[in-house]
Design a protein that fits this description.
By secondary structure, this protein is α+β, with helices and mostly antiparallel strands. The chain is extended, with a radius of gyration of 24 Å. The protein is built from eight helices and five strands, in the order ααααββββααβαα. 41% of the residues lie in helices and 14% in strands. A hairpin with a 2-residue loop joins β3 and β4. The chain has a five-stranded mixed beta sheet with strand order 1-2-5-3-4. α6 packs parallel to α7.
């Protein structure tokens, strides 16, 4: 069971290649990687940690980390996002700037400008307004949470479609959701009211008589 978990965590798809790495002898590791034979990690854990540390080091130094481009058979990049009880699924690709939400136009679905600005924020950050076609399907909660869920889902869809946009979206902090960036989920929830009080913290004014 532990070997299967490490096979899944390694990200490899070929079981034979995985066995060659996992069952590599300590002397082979020492010859290939210049390791001490008494390394505290297992063989596979070392390779996974090395790959992870290298990616972090490239980001820290300022180098461009390599991320895989993930699209479906029709060339769409997909992303999911949530806010409160709202759930959004967004697909994106290059186009004429069409933005569809639940088979309706963005201006028709969100009548308040502030909500439309939230939904378009990822495209504004990467300077992609009018360059992408976006189709979104969102359910649950109110329009405010729907717009924020679309914002997160669209950011993740852009990363899947264009991995080079990831550092830009990660570095932008949304003022209304500090300290979250565009790729992080804002998990704040409304605190339920306390029994006997008007709200979660609000109580009636105390009266002496």
């Amino acid at each position: 069971r532990n070997i299967f978990r490490r096979f899944v965590a390694s990200g490899q798809t070929d079981w034979n290649e995985f066995q060659k790495i996992y069952f590599r002898t300590e002397q082979q590791m020492k010859d290939d990687e210049g390791l001490d034979s008494t390394h505290p990690y297992s063989k596979l854990e070392f390779h996974v940690r090395k790959k992870r540390d290298l990616s972090k080091q490239e980001r820290k130094v300022g180098g461009k980390a390599k991320f895989a481009r993930v699209v479906d058979e029709d060339g769409w990049g997909w992303g999911r996002g949530s806010r409160k009880t709202a759930r959004a699924h967004v697909k994106v690709k290059f186009g004429n700037g069409q933005f569809i939400v639940n088979q309706s136009n963005l201006q028709t679905f969100f009548s308040i400008i502030h909500y439309r600005e939230w939904a378009l924020k990822p495209l504004e950050v990467i300077q992609g307004l009018g360059k992408f076609d976006v189709h979104a399907y969102v359910t649950g909660s109110g329009h405010s949470a729907k717009a924020q869920a679309i914002m997160t889902a669209l950011s993740r869809a852009l990363v899947s479609y264009q991995p080079d946009t990831r550092p830009i979206l990660e570095s932008y902090i949304v003022p209304s959701f500090f300290p979250h960036n565009l790729l992080q989920t804002d998990r704040r929830q409304r605190e339920s009211s306390t029994p006997g009080n008007e709200g979660a913290r609000m109580a009636e004014q105390w009266k002496k008589r």
